[in-house]
């Protein structure tokens, strides 16, 4: 039976920090050269130099590990935010069929009570009280807010969504 990602999680097979990536040949070459150069330095340096080299390598790997970890977190959060924003859109589309059957009609424009913008698309339901109708963008804002995305990032994500819609 093929394991899906949740099976893999359950069995502890997802371990980002010890993930080994296959290096392309040119990177493999760089990496070999680094090892060779370290060996060369270790042989040619005096005691003080060796200590400096050792300290340099330790600190460098510390910084590198930190950066890799932060990049992983950034990539993960960004992916989650985009997925959440995408899901929010499909919820709104589903709601729009009910909305069309209501006494509001398609040609009307509405003013969003949350941001004050005029909008033409089917509204979203505010998460705050589950009854206020807000504009689709504010629906996305609330969804992102609920997963801890700050204001600035919310607007950045909306810009990406608008951009991708224009390109459709
Ligand atoms: Zn709004």
UniProtKB/TrEMBL annotation:
Taxonomic superkingdom: Bacteria
Matches recorded under Pfam families: DUF6809 (PF20648)
Matching InterPro entries: DUF6809
Name of the protein this chain belongs to: Hydrogenase maturation factor HypA
Organism annotation: Blautia parvula
């Amino acid at each position: 039976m093929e394991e899906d990602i949740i099976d893999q999680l359950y069995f502890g097979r997802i371990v980002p920090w010890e993930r080994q990536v296959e290096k392309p040949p040119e990177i493999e070459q760089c990496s070999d050269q680094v090892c060779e150069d370290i060996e060369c330095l270790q042989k040619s340096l005096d005691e003080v130099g060796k200590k400096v080299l050792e300290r340099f390598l330790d600190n460098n790997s510390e910084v590198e590990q930190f950066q890799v970890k932060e990049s992983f977190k950034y990539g993960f959060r960004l992916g989650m935010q985009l997925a959440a924003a995408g899901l929010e859109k499909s919820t709104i589309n589903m709601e729009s069929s009910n909305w069309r059957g209501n006494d509001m009609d398609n040609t009307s424009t509405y003013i969003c009570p949350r941001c004050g913008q005029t909008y033409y698309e089917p509204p979203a339901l505010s998460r705050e009280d589950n009854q206020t109708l807000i504009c689709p963008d504010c629906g996305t804002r609330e969804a992102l807010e609920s997963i801890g995305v700050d204001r600035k990032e919310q607007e950045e994500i909306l810009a990406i969504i608008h951009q991708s819609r224009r390109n459709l």
